[in-house]
What does this fold into?
Amino acid sequence: MGVITRNAANNITTGGVILPAGINDTSVASISELQQVATGGGLNLISSQTASASSSIEFTSGIDSTYDVYRIDIINAHGSLDDKNFQINFSTDGGSNYNVTKTTTGFIAEHGEDGTPSGSLSYNTFLDLAQSTGNQTLGYNGGTAGSDSTSGTIYLFNPSSTTYVKHFISHTNIKDYTDDCRTLFVAGYCNTTSAINAVRFTFISANVDDGTFKMYGISAWVWLN
It folds into this structure.
Protein backbone atom coordinates (compact mmCIF):
# COMPACT_ATOMS: atom_id res chain seq x y z
CA MET A 1 0.00 0.00 0.00
CA GLY A 2 2.92 2.36 0.61
CA VAL A 3 3.90 2.57 -3.07
CA ILE A 4 0.28 3.00 -4.15
CA THR A 5 -0.29 5.75 -1.61
CA ARG A 6 2.87 7.60 -2.64
CA ASN A 7 1.93 7.40 -6.34
CA ALA A 8 -1.52 8.75 -5.59
CA ALA A 9 -0.11 11.57 -3.47
CA ASN A 10 2.27 12.60 -6.27
CA ASN A 11 -0.75 13.33 -8.47
CA ILE A 12 -2.57 15.58 -6.01
CA THR A 13 -1.71 19.28 -5.78
CA THR A 14 -1.28 21.13 -2.49
CA GLY A 15 -4.79 22.50 -3.09
CA GLY A 16 -6.23 19.00 -3.17
CA VAL A 17 -6.82 18.90 -6.94
CA ILE A 18 -6.24 15.56 -8.69
CA LEU A 19 -3.96 15.94 -11.71
CA PRO A 20 -4.91 14.29 -15.03
CA ALA A 21 -2.09 11.74 -14.65
CA GLY A 22 -3.74 10.52 -11.46
CA ILE A 23 -6.83 9.24 -13.28
CA ASN A 24 -6.12 6.19 -15.42
CA ASP A 25 -7.00 2.52 -15.83
CA THR A 26 -4.68 1.40 -13.05
CA SER A 27 -5.49 4.07 -10.46
CA VAL A 28 -9.30 3.82 -10.61
CA ALA A 29 -11.31 0.60 -10.86
CA SER A 30 -14.96 -0.12 -11.68
CA ILE A 31 -16.17 3.42 -12.36
CA SER A 32 -19.93 3.39 -12.84
CA GLU A 33 -20.46 7.15 -13.09
CA LEU A 34 -18.45 10.41 -13.11
CA GLN A 35 -20.38 13.62 -12.51
CA GLN A 36 -19.23 17.11 -13.56
CA VAL A 37 -15.86 16.12 -14.94
CA ALA A 38 -13.89 19.05 -16.34
CA THR A 39 -10.42 18.93 -17.86
CA GLY A 40 -7.88 21.32 -19.28
CA GLY A 41 -9.01 24.77 -18.16
CA GLY A 42 -8.91 25.41 -14.42
CA LEU A 43 -8.88 29.14 -13.59
CA ASN A 44 -6.50 30.05 -10.80
CA LEU A 45 -6.97 33.63 -9.61
CA ILE A 46 -3.58 35.33 -9.28
CA SER A 47 -4.57 38.92 -8.54
CA SER A 48 -7.42 41.38 -8.81
CA GLN A 49 -7.37 45.17 -9.10
CA THR A 50 -10.10 47.80 -8.95
CA ALA A 51 -9.51 51.11 -10.73
CA SER A 52 -10.30 54.41 -9.02
CA ALA A 53 -9.27 57.43 -11.10
CA SER A 54 -6.16 55.40 -11.96
CA SER A 55 -3.75 56.53 -14.65
CA SER A 56 -3.33 52.87 -15.58
CA ILE A 57 -3.89 49.34 -14.33
CA GLU A 58 -0.74 47.20 -14.31
CA PHE A 59 0.01 43.58 -13.50
CA THR A 60 3.71 43.57 -12.68
CA SER A 61 3.95 40.27 -10.82
CA GLY A 62 2.53 36.79 -11.23
CA ILE A 63 3.21 36.42 -14.97
CA ASP A 64 5.92 33.77 -15.10
CA SER A 65 6.51 30.13 -16.00
CA THR A 66 3.89 28.80 -13.56
CA TYR A 67 1.22 28.67 -16.29
CA ASP A 68 1.34 28.32 -20.06
CA VAL A 69 -1.76 30.48 -20.52
CA TYR A 70 -2.79 33.62 -18.65
CA ARG A 71 -6.23 35.21 -18.81
CA ILE A 72 -7.20 38.74 -17.79
CA ASP A 73 -10.87 39.67 -17.38
CA ILE A 74 -11.87 43.32 -17.80
CA ILE A 75 -15.10 44.11 -15.99
CA ASN A 76 -16.76 47.48 -16.72
CA ALA A 77 -13.66 49.56 -17.40
CA HIS A 78 -14.83 53.17 -17.43
CA GLY A 79 -12.76 56.15 -18.60
CA SER A 80 -12.68 59.75 -17.35
CA LEU A 81 -13.26 61.33 -20.80
CA ASP A 82 -15.51 60.63 -23.78
CA ASP A 83 -14.26 59.21 -27.07
CA LYS A 84 -11.05 57.69 -25.73
CA ASN A 85 -9.52 54.37 -26.80
CA PHE A 86 -8.90 51.58 -24.33
CA GLN A 87 -5.46 50.01 -24.82
CA ILE A 88 -2.97 47.38 -23.69
CA ASN A 89 0.80 47.05 -23.79
CA PHE A 90 3.37 44.56 -22.55
CA SER A 91 6.72 44.63 -20.75
CA THR A 92 9.79 42.41 -20.55
CA ASP A 93 11.35 44.26 -17.61
CA GLY A 94 8.70 44.00 -14.93
CA GLY A 95 6.86 47.17 -15.94
CA SER A 96 9.74 49.64 -16.17
CA ASN A 97 8.95 49.98 -19.89
CA TYR A 98 5.88 49.04 -21.91
CA ASN A 99 7.32 48.99 -25.41
CA VAL A 100 7.30 45.43 -26.70
CA THR A 101 7.27 45.13 -30.50
CA LYS A 102 3.91 43.82 -31.72
CA THR A 103 2.25 42.76 -34.97
CA THR A 104 -1.55 42.56 -34.72
CA THR A 105 -4.88 42.66 -36.54
CA GLY A 106 -8.55 42.96 -35.66
CA PHE A 107 -12.14 43.49 -36.73
CA ILE A 108 -15.27 45.10 -35.32
CA ALA A 109 -19.01 44.47 -35.29
CA GLU A 110 -21.35 47.22 -34.15
CA HIS A 111 -25.01 48.07 -33.71
CA GLY A 112 -26.63 51.21 -32.32
CA GLU A 113 -29.48 51.49 -29.85
CA ASP A 114 -31.41 53.28 -32.62
CA GLY A 115 -30.97 50.28 -34.94
CA THR A 116 -28.05 51.67 -36.96
CA PRO A 117 -25.46 50.81 -38.09
CA SER A 118 -27.30 47.53 -38.46
CA GLY A 119 -25.08 44.48 -38.26
CA SER A 120 -21.95 46.29 -39.45
CA LEU A 121 -18.92 44.00 -39.55
CA SER A 122 -15.58 45.30 -40.74
CA TYR A 123 -11.84 44.87 -40.77
CA ASN A 124 -10.29 48.05 -39.37
CA THR A 125 -6.76 49.07 -40.16
CA PHE A 126 -6.56 51.32 -37.08
CA LEU A 127 -6.50 48.15 -34.96
CA ASP A 128 -3.42 46.92 -36.81
CA LEU A 129 0.15 47.25 -35.59
CA ALA A 130 3.09 46.34 -37.82
CA GLN A 131 6.23 45.85 -35.74
CA SER A 132 5.12 48.66 -33.45
CA THR A 133 6.06 49.29 -29.83
CA GLY A 134 2.95 51.43 -29.31
CA ASN A 135 -0.19 50.55 -27.38
CA GLN A 136 -2.66 48.09 -28.86
CA THR A 137 -6.26 49.32 -29.05
CA LEU A 138 -8.81 46.94 -27.51
CA GLY A 139 -11.79 49.32 -27.48
CA TYR A 140 -12.72 52.79 -28.72
CA ASN A 141 -15.28 55.59 -28.28
CA GLY A 142 -15.51 54.91 -24.57
CA GLY A 143 -17.77 57.22 -22.60
CA THR A 144 -18.21 58.85 -19.21
CA ALA A 145 -21.93 58.25 -18.75
CA GLY A 146 -22.80 55.94 -15.90
CA SER A 147 -23.77 53.17 -18.29
CA ASP A 148 -20.69 53.46 -20.55
CA SER A 149 -18.00 50.81 -20.06
CA THR A 150 -15.77 48.17 -21.66
CA SER A 151 -15.69 44.50 -20.67
CA GLY A 152 -13.84 41.55 -22.15
CA THR A 153 -11.10 38.95 -21.91
CA ILE A 154 -7.46 38.74 -23.00
CA TYR A 155 -5.48 35.50 -23.31
CA LEU A 156 -1.67 35.56 -23.26
CA PHE A 157 0.09 32.36 -24.33
CA ASN A 158 3.37 31.03 -22.90
CA PRO A 159 4.70 34.44 -21.81
CA SER A 160 7.81 32.98 -20.16
CA SER A 161 9.11 31.37 -23.36
CA THR A 162 12.57 32.44 -24.47
CA THR A 163 12.17 30.62 -27.80
CA TYR A 164 8.86 31.71 -29.31
CA VAL A 165 6.95 34.93 -29.88
CA LYS A 166 4.10 35.58 -27.41
CA HIS A 167 0.63 35.28 -28.95
CA PHE A 168 -2.38 37.04 -27.47
CA ILE A 169 -6.10 37.14 -28.28
CA SER A 170 -8.71 39.57 -26.99
CA HIS A 171 -12.46 40.00 -27.27
CA THR A 172 -14.03 43.11 -25.80
CA ASN A 173 -17.47 44.67 -25.87
CA ILE A 174 -18.11 48.39 -25.46
CA LYS A 175 -21.18 50.44 -24.69
CA ASP A 176 -19.77 53.67 -26.09
CA TYR A 177 -20.57 57.36 -25.62
CA THR A 178 -22.73 57.42 -28.79
CA ASP A 179 -24.91 54.58 -27.42
CA ASP A 180 -23.49 52.02 -29.84
CA CYS A 181 -22.67 48.43 -28.97
CA ARG A 182 -19.24 47.60 -30.38
CA THR A 183 -17.50 44.26 -30.12
CA LEU A 184 -13.82 44.08 -31.04
CA PHE A 185 -11.76 41.00 -31.83
CA VAL A 186 -8.01 41.64 -31.72
CA ALA A 187 -5.14 39.17 -31.97
CA GLY A 188 -1.43 39.30 -32.57
CA TYR A 189 1.96 38.51 -31.16
CA CYS A 190 4.68 40.21 -29.17
CA ASN A 191 7.65 39.77 -31.47
CA THR A 192 10.23 39.01 -28.82
CA THR A 193 11.93 35.93 -27.44
CA SER A 194 12.30 37.66 -24.07
CA ALA A 195 9.81 36.68 -21.40
CA ILE A 196 6.74 38.90 -21.04
CA ASN A 197 6.30 39.61 -17.32
CA ALA A 198 4.00 42.65 -17.04
CA VAL A 199 0.85 44.03 -18.68
CA ARG A 200 -0.62 47.55 -18.61
CA PHE A 201 -4.12 48.84 -19.44
CA THR A 202 -4.81 52.52 -20.18
CA PHE A 203 -7.21 54.95 -21.82
CA ILE A 204 -5.61 57.46 -24.22
CA SER A 205 -5.19 60.79 -22.39
CA ALA A 206 -7.68 59.76 -19.69
CA ASN A 207 -7.81 57.93 -16.39
CA VAL A 208 -9.31 54.53 -15.75
CA ASP A 209 -11.99 55.89 -13.45
CA ASP A 210 -13.56 52.56 -12.58
CA GLY A 211 -13.43 48.86 -13.42
CA THR A 212 -12.26 45.53 -12.08
CA PHE A 213 -9.37 43.61 -13.60
CA LYS A 214 -8.77 39.96 -12.69
CA MET A 215 -5.76 37.90 -13.80
CA TYR A 216 -5.88 34.09 -13.83
CA GLY A 217 -3.46 31.32 -14.67
CA ILE A 218 -5.02 28.47 -16.62
CA SER A 219 -3.96 24.95 -15.65
CA ALA A 220 -4.85 21.42 -16.71
CA TRP A 221 -6.99 19.87 -14.00
CA VAL A 222 -9.59 17.28 -13.18
CA TRP A 223 -12.55 18.09 -10.98
CA LEU A 224 -14.72 15.32 -9.63
CA ASN A 225 -17.91 16.16 -7.77
Q: What stands out?
A: The mean pLDDT is 87.
